[in-house]
Write a structure and sequence with these properties.
heterodimer; A: alpha+beta; OB fold (Dihydrolipoamide Acetyltransferase, E2P); five-stranded mixed beta barrel; 28% strand; B: alpha+beta; five-stranded antiparallel β-sheet; four-stranded antiparallel β-sheet
Chain lengths: 154, 637
């Protein structure tokens, strides 16, 4: 097949672009597969729906009276509940400013063999009135009581 | 009374926007000069009434008029005056008003400064009028900032979100919006060109300065946002791959591609229809960014809670604007002809690959940002895509871009032979690699390869760029050419500086969370942090605790830092005010955690080498943009 120089150049450029797109797509798919964090509720964790050895996000309410600091390190343990089931969480580090008992929280980490969530990250949102939509959707309707102070809607 | 005037002015501005949207466009088809000439005065009229409206809202903030709902929700009598004004864009309704004001400012800048044919200006201003009318309608129907709380006006306001009470944030949104909305101008030029069916090098020459201006503002906005996040969010990060950050980064990447492809259209007449598509994309991504942030679909620090009618309106507006422009593009793009021959090894090819890479990067980031939303919308489960994804796709794709960035500016238009390119590039290439080898040798193998790569790439860009500049100054004394490339030089150096900052701070930062008692010392890196005392603190609208740390290196005292924990009175929100000892080569960063006993605190102590280089690089890019625009104006005048 004889190609004139213009076609040859076009073909080379198009092949280059296709290669770049393919590499990027492969990279993106691989990275997505590795780095997606699924979101679970305490009930789903209790039901054993969470795969072992895989990081996930747990959403719920910090159970009142459950936060305990260890005396000689920055380790803190607390319980996350959805008003039906609860999961113990252990975290070493500094909790965010808005982390409070009775408030919504999202915790990211892996389950240990004992069923404790070893958290790498604790997220509490920067707005008192705010509850993550994902957490709100997962709270059990039974015995639901708003963890929020009555909003001062004027 | 004043708020009613503000709202009335907004309605009048909407009427002006409608006239501006309809008549000049119709006139341009019926060849009625009078209708076309309506474009400029209506744009001015619109601006005047939008400014009156903004002034009324500012007045309501300054006079603590809590009968206005927006003021009551975002201000407080104790709020310092500069923040009362900044509170204007502290939440949803005011941000929309800011969007409208900035669009109106851009429109008038185009109307009065652009020296382009009457037909084109009529259509450009009409298209901007359509966008403006859409957003004014959005404001009036779903997000009225002048909504009253009568007769039960509260006596005190709820105060501005404490996170936003920072000088960085006071100017970050206006800058960012100047960038977002600025792409509307390039968009309007692109649509007008499609309508005209004429797309020539003159079109690119008119569009380019506006694109560079918008890009510069967006760069400044993103840089300020990063700096604010570092100072104010209390965990010392400068970029989080938060969906809202991505929302500003996607138009930036597309805008960068657009800026470069416009050069090819202007100089060589190639890439025309691709450039038009980029202009449409850049603005569409700005709109998508606005939608993501304003509609409440995203869970983020920046996302304001809002009602679904807003999201629905924005989504429809978005679909209409993007759909109509892509339809027009599909109809008209095949008629765009032109383009001239270029060889495989030529500046055109370098710029083409630049565009392809930037758009691929943008697409992968867009995928990661939207994927969780799409899955959620389809009820396929709730997931989150975290920073590891974005780092994993972004970094490898940036590497070829950075390699080409050194070579591109030294290449020739149309064609060049490989030997010529090698002759111009061997010196910077050898020097950069040599520098990397020396670094690895000096560090006796301790250097991570990523750091070596980052430093080599950055020095490659710096050396190649400077070589071009210096060879022009020393050998050819060609100063007009030097002025011509000054903008590019500064912007590319900015990227290189940024790469150095990102690489070094990512690999050499030391972050320690410690438990520390008054009188104790924590050692982080070469520095000793001595916890001196804790004092009470009384601010204008907050109270709190001020912890004093004395920092020393060996026996040499370095600095005394005051890290604070504040409780803002109105909403009882706790805020961490980090204390930072800034330096060219390193930052020392202290943020208080929580009190564990009376005298013991958990504290974050960070050592951040070269972190300022990231923002310094951003400043250089902005300066580059300014230099490029002023150079063009000089040549034109």
């Amino acid at each position: 097949m004889n190609l004139n120089p213009i076609h040859k150049r076009r073909l080379t450029l198009i092949l280059l672009i296709i290669t770049a797109v393919a590499i990027a797509a492969a990279l993106a798919l691989y990275a997505l597969q590795q780095n997606i964090n699924l979101f679970y509720s305490p009930s789903q964790v209790a039901a054993g729906q969470v795969p072992r050895n895989q990081a996930f996000r747990l959403g719920g309410i910090v159970q009142a009276g459950s936060v305990k600091h260890t005396s000689n390190s920055l380790q803190v343990v607390f319980t996350v509940t959805d008003n039906a089931k609860s999961v113990p969480v252990s975290y070493t580090g500094i909790l965010p400013d808005l982390f409070r008992e009775g408030q919504a929280v999202v915790v990211e980490g892996k389950l240990t063999a004992q069923g404790t969530l070893q958290a790498d990250q604790v997220l509490a949102k920067h707005d008192e009135k705010y509850m993550p939509a994902a957490v709100k959707a997962m709270l059990k309707p039974v015995n639901i009581k708003s963890p929020l102070p009555p909003a001062e809607e004027d | 009374m004043i708020p009613e005037i503000g709202q009335f002015a907004l309605i009048l501005a909407f009427c002006f926007a409608l006239i501006q949207a309809i008549f000049p466009l119709l006139g341009s088809y019926r060849n009625e000069i009078f209708c076309m000439q309506l474009a400029r005065p209506t744009a001015l009229g619109q601006l005047v009434f939008v400014l009156i409206s903004v002034a009324c809202l500012i007045y309501a903030f300054i006079t603590n008029d809590f009968s206005v709902q927006y003021v009551a929700q975002n201000s407080n009598t104790e709020l310092p005056l500069p923040y009362k004004i900044a509170a204007l864009w502290g939440a949803h309704e005011g941000s929309v008003l800011l969007w409208i004001m900035i669009l109106s400012l851009w429109t008038n800048a185009v109307a009065w400064w652009s020296r382009i044919p009457e037909l084109l200006i009529a259509r450009v201003l009409s298209i901007l009028g359509i966008l403006s009318a859409g957003f004014l309608l959005f404001s009036l129907t779903t997000s009225n900032p002048f909504q009253r709380l009568l007769p039960n006006a509260p006596l005190q306001g709820a105060d501005l979100n404490p996170l936003l009470q920072d000088p960085g944030l006071a100017i970050h949104p206006p800058m960012l919006y100047m960038g977002y909305v600025g792409f509307a101008v390039a968009f309007a030029f692109a649509i007008a060109a499609l309508l005209n069916g004429r797309l020539d090098t003159a079109w690119a020459r008119w569009t380019r300065p506006w694109t560079i201006a918008a890009w510069s503002f967006l760069t400044a906005g993103i840089t300020l946002g990063s700096w604010w996040a570092y100072r104010e969010l209390g965990w010392g990060g400068w970029w989080f791959w938060d969906p809202v950050e991505n929302a500003s980064f996607l138009p930036w990447l597309t805008g960068t591609a657009l800026m470069h492809s416009l050069i090819v259209v202007e100089k060589r007449g190639s890439f025309k229809s691709w450039t038009v598509l980029l202009a449409i994309c850049a603005f569409s991504l700005s709109l998508i960014g606005t939608f993501l942030v304003r509609s409440g679909v995203l869970v983020s620090v920046h996302a304001f809670a809002s009602d679904p009618t807003r999201g629905a309106f924005l989504l429809q507006f978005l679909a209409a604007v993007i759909g109509a422009s892509l339809l027009l593009y599909a109809v008209r793009a095949p008629t765009i002809r032109g383009g001239s021959y270029f060889a495989l090894l030529s500046r055109e090819t370098f710029l083409l690959i630049n565009n392809v890479l930037l758009i691929i990067i943008m697409a992968t980031l867009l995928l990661g940002t939207l994927y969780p939303l799409i899955l959620d919308a389809l009820n396929l489960g709730k997931i989150s895509v975290g920073p590891p994804y974005f780092n994993a796709v972004f970094v490898p794709l940036m590497i070829p871009l950075l390699i080409l960035m050194g070579a591109g500016p030294l290449s020739y238009w149309r064609e060049m032979n490989g030997a010529m390119l090698v002759k111009r590039l061997w010196l910077p290439l050898i020097c950069a690699i040599l520098l990397g080898v020396i670094l690895i040798y000096v560090s006796t193998g301790q250097l991570p390869w990523q750091v070596a790569l980052g430093v080599i790439l950055a020095s490659w860009i710096i050396l190649a760029t400077l070589q071009l500049l210096l060879s022009q100054i020393i050998h050819k004394k060609n100063f007009s050419f030097v002025r011509h490339i000054l903008g590019m030089t500064l912007a590319h150096l900015g990227i290189a500086i940024c790469v150095i900052g990102i690489t070094l701070t990512s690999y050499y930062k030391i972050e320690r969370d410690v438990k520390i008692t008054i009188g104790d010392t924590a050692k982080v890196g070469p520095y000793d942090f001595h916890f001196m005392e804790v004092n009470n603190l009384q601010g204008p609208n907050y109270q709190g605790i001020d912890a004093v740390f004395a920092i020393s290196q060996g026996d040499k005292p370095v600095s005394t830092l005051h890290a604070q924990k504040r409780i803002y009175n109105a909403q009882q929100i706790v805020m961490t005010e980090a204390a930072i000892d800034a330096g060219i080569f390193r930052d020392l960063y202290i943020a208080l955690g929580e009190p564990l006993t009376d005298s013991t605190w958990s504290v974050r102590i960070y050592y951040k080498p070269f972190v300022r280089w990231i923002w310094f690089g951003g400043i250089l890019m902005v300066l580059g943009g300014i230099a490029a625009i002023s150079q063009r104006n000089k040549r034109r005048g």
